[in-house]
Structures are given as structure tokens and as C-alpha cells.
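Thread: Modeling a multi-component assembly for a lab meeting

Hi all, long-time lurker, first post. My supervisor asked me to bring a structural picture of a complex we are working on to next week's group meeting, and I have zero experience with this. I have the sequence lines for every component (544 residues in total). Could someone generate the structure of the whole assembly? Inputs are pasted exactly as I received them:
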Amino acid sequence: MEQMILLKHVFKYFGEFRALNDVSLEVAAGERVVVCGPSGSGKSTMIRCINRLEEHDDGEIWVNGNQLTEDVKKLTEIRKDVGMVFQQFNLFPHLSVVDNLTLAPMRARGLSKSDATDLAMTYLNRVHIPEQAAKYPGQLSGGQQQRVAIARSLCMQPKIMLFDEPTSALDPEMIKEVLDVMIELAEDGMTMIVVTHEMGFAKKAANKVVFMDQGEVVESAPTEQFFSQPESDRTKLFLSQILTH
Amino acid sequence: MTARKKPKSGVTRAVDTIVIASAIFLVGYVIYKVDTVMIYNWHWGFLWEYILRWDEEQQAYAPNLLLKGLATTFRLVIWSMLLASIIGIVMGIMRTSSRIFFRTVSRLYVEFIRNMPPVVFIFVFFFFLSSQFVPLLGIDELSVNASPKTIALLEILLGPPELFANVISGILCLALFEGAYITEIIRAGIQSIDKGQTEAGQSIGLTRFQTLRWVIFPQAVQKVIPPLTGQFITLIKDSSIVSLISIQELTFLAQEVAYSTQYVFEIWLFVAAVYFCICYSLALLFGKLEKRSQRIYQG
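Re: Modeling a multi-component assembly
Sure thing. I ran the full set together rather than chain by chain. Output:
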């Protein structure tokens, strides 16, 4: 299968603190990878390195055949292929929902306003909130905002979607509507890396689960195997902690 | 809800009445004192001649010193506001740049100006820069060689041709001075926007500049309207300081009128009222703007 993302011996430091310690990861096209682990384990840092919101200090990161370097122009091009959904949604509060969605297609891809609007409505339909197009982010619920954020990323028609704890800032009753959208996306064959604590989502949608702790990849296994026969003691402990309640 | 609100606004009204009444009383008392103790004969009538004069040759009214001064003040203020905003935006963005060169340049500019009294800056500017730099712009030749149409346009924008250099010095001086404060306001505005906004902009494939232009800046502008209003009002008031370097604006010409007529009280009270009106109208205008942009925000 075609390789989408490759991390080779990646290190990342925040001052003295080693946030990523020799992380290697391979994601093929169409693969859905869930990354889990205790807080501070480096999972967010890892996916933030993949679209270079954080710069890694050592090792190599390849995205869709391009290596991430300091070349800013190339970086902007690479980012067009990599969508990112944040924990805090990070919608643009001064723009209406539809303007949030059309901004990048118009400015970065050079689409006309009407083409961009058509595109935006297509993806708003896909996240099931076309009726909110004219509203401002501040008028929407958290679940709706996160779905708009997903649609905003999809509008750039990325090859890969990164999710950084997309449901962690949501009220419990809104988590499902966001996860449903993500599952649909997975069923359509999108390549996804999802940092989450939602093990239900992992079981339903992921091909592979990666467990990280203290900046290291402790375990990486196909979903079924990860939950039924985890190898490492740290994984077993983590799973027992989050699955027992 | 309404039952609780009513007595509350009633209380505010009572307090307001007391405050307003005492203010009126105080003003009345001062006028009474001036009238009885100072035994001063007020001459307000003469002001008119210095606003508008009858031109015998043209057989029409023509603006006199005070109105001319006011026009110059307006020109000074409008152009220097514009220029100061441009300087402030460019320098403000440079202040937040990741490149140390840009940060240093803008930092030096801000610190140089902020740590100097305005009057001193104006003298330094005038004697060392303006007298050297403005002639280099070739304004005097321009006003001689330009076509009548250009001159007419420039007259609307800058006032009488013989004072072009004079007004431009004033504009540059004010703009450079106020630009430093606007720089800091813009910097604070940009830095007040959550880092997640930049990350979101970049993650959907916008360049650094596009993110700044379409994501950060519109939000920052909305936030800096209140401090910017204050700075613009300060700019209007500071425009009176450039009278020190003989820029022929309202304060400068009022001074001349005051010297020649000796009606010092009337002149300065009048000028104070004019400045108050300009500044207060601006504050009202920006207040409206602020409310409108907040409405947009909430949809």
C-alpha cells in the first residue's frame, strides 16, 4: 500500500524535557491510526510535528513523499494535503461558518467565491449542519463547532486528517455527533491519525492503535490484537485504567 | 426582573441629578466670581471676524486665521492619523515577527520615541530632521513647477502652497510620534489573539502572511478599537504641540490672535471648545464603530 506518513527516529525537546524519544511510525494510505496514552506522553506533540506546528529536533518526517524541512514554501504546500482538527476547535470567530470554510479554498487554492461556497456546502452537508452556514461560531454548540472545524479541514480536500483530541473539550452528550462524523469519514477511506481517549471509536474505526508513554511508542498493533493481547505491561495498565469504568 | 430593574435605574437617576446639579452650580459660581471679582468685560463678538472676514476685493466672505488654523489642524490630524496607522501597523507586525532584525528595528523605534517628551521630540525632529529632510522631498520646486490642476488638488489636501513644506513637517512629526504608540497597541492586539488561530490558519494551508491578513488581523483590529480611539484623541490634542515649530494650525494662529487682540480668555476658551468638540465627536464615532463590530462578532 502507498505510504502516507513516515516518522523515522524522531526526537523533540522542550528545553530539557524530551517530549518525543526516538518515535518511529508508518501510516499507509487509507489507514486509520488511533494514538492513545496518558497525558504528557507526547501524542499531541507527535501529530503536531506531522504538519510542523512543532518542529522536530532530530530524525525524519515524510508526508506523502515529501520530507518536512525548513523550506516554508514547501511546508505550505504539504499542509494543504494535511487537515488538522484541534481540541479547542480553533474556528475563526470573526467569520461566519461558511466563510470559515471558504477562506482557505479561496486564498490558498484560488477558487472563486461561488465554487468555494459550493464546496463548503458539500462538506457542511457531510457533517450534517448545512443549516448553520450563515451563523457565527460563537452561536453554535461545541459539537457543532467541532463538526464545522472538520468540514473546514475537509474543504482543502486533504489526503490525511489529523485529529488532536477532538472530543476532549466537548460535553458528553456532544461527543457522539462528532465521533459519528469521524466514523463516516473513516468508512469513506480517509487516512486518519486520531489522538483520543475514546476507545470505542478506536475499536470501531481504527486499523491500528499506537500506545505512547513518556515520549516513546510503547506498543503499536492492529486494533483487535491491541485490545485482546497487549504485550507491554504499561499498555495493560493503561487499558485497565481507562476500560474498567 | 423588570420590577428589580426599575428602582435601580431610579437610583442612578437621582445620583445623576445631584452630580449634574452640582456641576451646573459650580460652573455658575465660577462665572459669577469671574464676573464680579475679576470685573472682566467679555468680548465674544470679535471672534467672528477672526473666523470669517469680509474680503473687499472678492466681495465675499473669506476664512480668517481661526478657520484657516482649524482647516490646517484637520489636515494635520487626518494625514498624520493615516500615516501613523500605517507606521503602527507595519511596525506592530514587525514587533511580533519571528525575525530578530524586524523585532530590533521596531523595538528601537518605539523605545526611542516613547522615552522622550513630545516637545523634545518635536524640536529634535524639526531642527535635525525636518530642516534637512523635507527640502529633499523637493516640495518647494513641486509647488512651482506643478500644473495648476495638481496644485489645486494639493491645496485641498495640504492647504496653501506656500505652507506645503510646513504642513508636511507637521504631519511627519506627528505621525512618527503617534506611530510608536499605535505600534504598541497593534502589537498587543496581535498578541492577544489565541495561538490556536495561527495554528488553524497554517494547518489549512494559508501562508504566514495570509494567516495574519485574514485570521489574526481582523480580530486584532476589533480588539484595539478602544485603545486606538484614545490614541487618536491624543493625536488630535498633540497636534497643538506642533505649533511650537510654527506649523500654522489652530493653536499657533490662536496664539497670534490672542497676542494681537489681547482677548486671551475668549480666544483660549473658544479654542478649547473647538478641540473638545472634535475629540468628543471622534470618541462618539468610534464608540458606534466598536458597538457595530461587536454586533458582527456575535452574529
